[in-house]
Amino acid sequence: MKGKNVMIKKFIYGFFIFGFVGASFECFKMFKSSNKAEDCIAALLALVCAYFLYRRGFKKKEYALASLSGQPTQVTRGEKEICEMIDNALSDGTYTVDEEQAILAKASQLGVSLDADSVVGKKAEHAAYYRDILAGIPRQPPMPWPPGFMSESGERLVWVWDADVSVWSENKMYVAGTSGVSYRLTSRITVRSAGTRGHIEKQEGFSLLGRGVVAVTNHALLYSSGGRAERIPLAKIVHVTQALDGVIVQLSGRGKPLAISTDDDAFFAVCLVNARLIS
Hints:
The protein is of the alpha+beta class. It is built from six helices and eleven strands. Helix 3 runs antiparallel to helix 4 (about 95-110) and helix 3 (about 75-90) packs parallel to helix 5 (about 120-135).
């Protein structure tokens, strides 16, 4: 139904575009014969209206998706819709064949290509791979094991991302006090302002370690960033949530929270939350 409505909308816009372009040619002809400025202005206005209608009815709008490079990836409205459908399908930790077929049908209806080189094609490929390894189907990950990390017995790699990694930090800073100031108003009256005592201020928040590599396995969360590398067993991860500045990972005990920002935070969060289910 939606595709039919789009076709009707384009037909209506096209009809009026054709009409305005024809009117513009007629006005230019009249201007050529009469040399009246009004005819030239009318012709230009008709062309402006035709261009506006083209932008509204036929020009594909582009939307931005987050990217680690700092330059947002531009996608069309249809591609953005398919990406959101994939994220919604994965949000419950599963990605069924029926969900995949519905997404493929929607992509075909919207004219969205699922080529492996496109953003939406990569997301669809990631989701299908995740579904297979969750079901126990033996599949080799399409990327090598993160360099420098040692694998444990029975450990399977889920996925590897380039990421910005931040760690929660708490710093205390001493703020010096100030002495009072005297103001002599008259020979007998002097006003003195009170000073302030020095005190300790606590500053806390996420501190960026740098750009690095993050991996999820069925045993642990691995990251290497800013000269620091760590293996965090999945048993120590108590809470995972997606925020504006990335995926916030809360750890048990004295482990400091992490903020990890990848080029696909939704997929990273799903893999991390459900990694223990992969055998």
